[in-house]
Amino acid sequence: MLENYVVSALLASTIAASAPDGVPAASSVTVTGCDQYTTIFPPMDRGPSAQVRYKILEISFVNRSPITARHVRFAVGADAQIVDAFGRFSTGIPIIRDFEPTNDDNVSGPGNCAIKLVEFSDGSSWRVP
User: Fold this and answer.
1) Which of 89, 91, 83 lies closest to 112 in space, CA to CA?
2) What residues have CB less than 8 Å from 63, skipping those under 6 apart?
3) In 3-state terms, the chain is what percent helix, strand and coil (to 5)?
4) DSSP output for 44-59
5) pLDDT digits over 11-43, tens only?
6) In 3D, which of 72, 63, 76 has the Cα closest to residue 110?
7) Is 15 helix (H, G, I), strand (E, B) or coil?
8) Which end of the chain, C or N, has fewer beta carbons within 10 A?
């Protein structure tokens, strides 16, 4: 009888963690950092008043799936700028990617980069339910 209860509890927790169409509600890729930096370069031939500003969006993430990910799509900031990372993202390896942001959001913290899509090397994918 205890076995039936355990199986039922496991089944219920699996269903609760999935969207209605059977897709897991949470991505197996986790954002660990999302920060925007501004770097200022003083051009050598223009004098001290001229400056070039360059913004960098740095996203850190980890693939927790046993399958290598090859494409991760993020929505960044309040206006949900779409940023795509392509590569071979193996299980458990911390990844840091830099992007050029197209918005002026002051992004700081992993909560500002939401994962929208993950495509895996075996052809499977996960997208926000």
Assistant:
1) 83
2) 28, 29, 69, 89, 90, 91, 92, 93, 95, 118
3) 15, 50, 35
4) TTS-TT--EEEEEEEE
5) 333 333 334 444 466 889 999 999 888 777 777
6) 76
7) helix
8) N
Structure-block tokens of residue 120: 């895996």
Neighbours of 74 (CB within 10 A): 25
Q: Counting beta carbons within 10 angstroms of the beta carbon of residue 89, is it exposed (0 to 12), middle (13 to 18) or buried (19 or more)?
A: buried
112: tokens are: 């500002």
Give me Rg for the CA atoms of the chain: 20
What are the residues whose beta carbons fall under 8 Å from the beta carbon of 55, sequence distance 6 or more?
A: 36, 37, 38, 39, 100, 101
Taking only the tens place, the pLDDT of each residue in 54-76 is 788 899 999 999 999 999 999 98
